[in-house]
Amino acid sequence: MVSAPTRHHPKNIIGAVGGVVAFAVPFLVDIPGLEDPGERMLSIFLLAIVLWVTEAIPLVATAVLVIALEVLLVSDQALLPVPDGALAYSKFLGALANPVIILFLGGFLIADGAAKYHLDKNLAAVLITPFTGSARRTVLGLMVITALLSMFMSNTATTATMFAVIIPILGALPEGKPQAGLALSIPVAANVGGIGTPVGTPPNAIALGALGEAGYHISFADWMVMAVPLMLVILLGAWALIALLFIPRGLGIDLDMKASWSTSPKARAFYVIAGLTILAWMTESLHGVSANVVGFLAVVALLVTGVMGGEDLGRLSWPVLWLVAGGIALGDGVGATGLDTWILGLFDWNAMGALAVVVVMGLLGLGMSNVISHSAASNLLIPLAMGLATGIEGLEPVTIAVVLALACSLGMSLPISTPPNAIAYATGTVTTADMAKVGIVIGVAGTALLVFAMPPLWAALGLL
């Protein structure tokens, strides 16, 4: 979502009241088949749903509230009686330093360093050179560059960077559809590109965290093998759609973009550290060092060398990191109290079959992520989906978690669906109708490709 609603807005009040009511119901009504810890966890889960959907309080505030309530209500330090063997309170607090959080911390610091030393804009200037001349070809080039950057930078930061690059290009195009098409191409490419790596977008981290808690390890390279083919197909399809709808054939455009590389010792050190980190992430299967450890070592190297400092750490997207931690803790609580089993028992999932469940979950992730944040949708759905995977024959936990993460990243049909969309909408060149038209087609087509074609491919490659 773009931002938290204004304090005391009626939507906030309604959301807060709704959250309190939802939280109280399991305490006041006996839930058949659910023990006391499960009922308390249901209260926390319902509260999280209401607050994340309404944004009555900031998303990160809901995330840390979830962790606090889990410690106070269902951990071994709970204020109310819990059975022997209740999850240790340190498990919930440990979500704030989960290895996946450390991986994202490294990714964020490298992304901020790229902006600090202008690596992002210089790369864009160099990479766009082969795509100049034709407007359609230029849009393709900009989408490829945006997708590549968003694989290692946040989608929002990538979009902001690319709009700084393309403002002169927008002015060189005729008003109306050509400008709208170019403006739309950037958030679409950023959203799609983010699915390509574990550090590309928070839903990826949430899925990896849930899988890690369940004992499944996916390397950095394995994730890329699973996601990059889908990313490339959707990216090319999105470009073809935007070109067809907005960019007339034969429209030309002249660009004069030059790179200005910083050659200071710190900039050179950053280039080396960032390059080695990405190389180490992509070759995890060769050297055996976890991507999480590599991410932490990158943080150490950047700080020890003085390339990045304490002020740079302070500017990191800590709310995003804590939001991911809240999702990991929510999954821990749902699984430890038996709430996942109870919720899944409400429906006859086995009658649907593994493929039908994947399709339903994929569509649910796509639908929810269009109206609430991608991270919030992932936080709510992935813990439940992981529970499903243990009870349905033929349904792999890796499949359902990755499908949900990728499907949530394809929700981009509204200005409020994702910050990159909001940035594009703010230019005044894109209408909501244009955004919805493109976003719905890409989302539905991409999700169909994801749920029907990708799991068989992953199985054939031995990734499941």
Summarize this structure as a short list of keywords or feature phrases.
single chain, 464 residues, mainly alpha, two-stranded antiparallel ribbon, 22 helices, globular, disordered N terminus
What is the typical, i.e. mean, pLDDT?
A: 86
Rg (CA only): 22 Å
Class from helix and strand fractions: mainly alpha
Unreliable stretches (pLDDT < 50, length at least 5) are 1-6
Assembly category: single chain
Rough shape? globular
* Main sheet strand line-up: 1-2
Give me the number of helical elements.
22
Could you describe the largest sheet, including whether it forms a barrel? 2 strands, antiparallel
Which percent range describes the beta-strand content?
under 5%
Percent of residues in helical segments? Answer: over 70%
Order of SSEs: HHHHHHEHHHHHEHHHHHHHHHHH
Tell how many strands the DSSP assignment holds.
2
**C-alpha end-to-end distance:** 32 Å
